[in-house]
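queue> pop job 88
queue> type: inverse folding (structure -> sequence)
queue> payload:
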């Protein structure tokens, strides 16, 4: 059932080109430079009335929402905010009819996300689900949404659900962008980039052996830092979550600029810093932060864009991802970090598919 792979997690990482193709297939309109997401159940008038996007989720799904926040703001000029779903219900969420609430959940059964959906429904917002499990409670209670089509995810550590969530969020953002400031040409360009995601991911997975090799340098530490800026900041959070979840290494994800406001005090000779420094706006600043870490003796692993020798020169080790649109590149960059976490955990002999204290679906608050 693991299809020849040692763990479900590794199988699911490798399935991503296929699961992403399934998530994307039939949902892009290259002619209009837009996306076709009929499950959203929105007319163009509904879309025009949306003033704000509120994204809800927990854990990895929360991180997908954080990438989505950049997409809605950058592409659609829409005010977007992300709430940890548990928090949403216990504050006074100021939402109403002009808000598009997107509940993100692989399982569709996470108690906190479900409670937040009920609260948003109660307040009359336009609520939709981004679920993988068909017919799950959140999918049913939202009544509208976009299924991920990632296929069953068995490993407790979420991998293919995350990349499909980001791909679907990009398609929703594209649709909203086209009703706002995005031209047909811009839309066509992004649609093509989204369509190439499976290929970008395949090229990243092709480095599996090399990643397994460099993981040896990072498997003996008890701490690690992941840093990134812009849309790579949530990728840093996701990379850190993956590592701590399956390898039990204490990993922290930080905005690269935040390091010198405290955490840099923890760096010692050999402390691993994983810098997501692909070629996006702000990369130079991230490289500056990498230099600060290096000066404190940190060992730096960079996730960089293929062919970027300038960035490579700052790093002790590199994983290269294909050159692509910045928002799109969050997907291959995350795949690189999934493989890194997997190989580190494997070297440490961890119970990868079933980490201690964790359940696949968290159905209690
Ligand atoms: O099923 P959901 O997407 O609602 O689950 C949310 C989190 O429990 C989940 O992403 C969790 O953080 C994973 N173990 C992360 O790998």
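queue> result:
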């Amino acid at each position: 059932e693991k299809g020849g792979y040692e763990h479900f997690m590794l199988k699911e990482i490798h399935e991503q080109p296929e699961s992403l193709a399934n998530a994307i297939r039939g949902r892009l309109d290259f002619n209009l430079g837009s996306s076709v997401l009929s499950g959203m159940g929105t007319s163009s008038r509904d879309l025009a009335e949306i003033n704000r996007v509120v994204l809800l989720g927990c854990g990895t799904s929360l991180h997908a929402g954080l990438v989505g926040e950049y997409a809605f703001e950058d592409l659609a000029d829409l005010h977007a905010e992300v709430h940890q779903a548990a928090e949403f219900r216990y504050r006074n969420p100021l939402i109403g009819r002009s808000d598009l609430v997107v509940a993100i959940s692989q399982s569709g059964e996470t108690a906190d996300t479900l409670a937040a959906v009920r609260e948003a429904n109660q307040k009359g917002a336009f609520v939709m689900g981004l679920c993988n499990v068909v017919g799950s409670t959140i999918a049913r209670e939202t009544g509208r949404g976009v299924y991920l089509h990632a296929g069953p995810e068995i490993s407790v550590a979420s991998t293919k659900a995350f990349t499909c969530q980001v791909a679907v969020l990009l398609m929703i953002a594209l649709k909203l962008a086209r009703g706002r400031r995005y031209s047909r040409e811009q839309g066509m360009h992004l649609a093509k980039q989204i369509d190439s995601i499976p290929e970008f991911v395949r090229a990243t997975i092709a480095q599996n052996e090399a990643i397994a090799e460099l993981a040896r340098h990072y498997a003996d530490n008890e701490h690690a830092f992941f840093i990134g800026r812009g849309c790579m900041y949530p990728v840093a959070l996701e990379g850190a979550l993956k590592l701590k979840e399956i390898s039990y290494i204490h990993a922290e994800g930080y905005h690269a600029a935040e390091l010198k406001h405290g955490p840099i005090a923890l760096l010692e000779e050999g402390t691993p810093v994983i810098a997501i420094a692909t070629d996006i706006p702000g990369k130079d600043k991230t490289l500056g932060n990498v230099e600060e870490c290096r000066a404190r003796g940190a060992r730096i692993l960079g996730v960089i864009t293929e062919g970027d020798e300038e960035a490579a020169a700052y790093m002790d080790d590199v994983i290269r991802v294909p050159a692509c649109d910045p928002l799109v590149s969050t997907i291959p960059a995350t795949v690189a970090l999934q493989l890194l976490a997997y190989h580190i955990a494997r070297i440490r002999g961890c119970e990868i598919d079933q980490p201690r204290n964790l359940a696949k679906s968290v159905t209690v608050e």
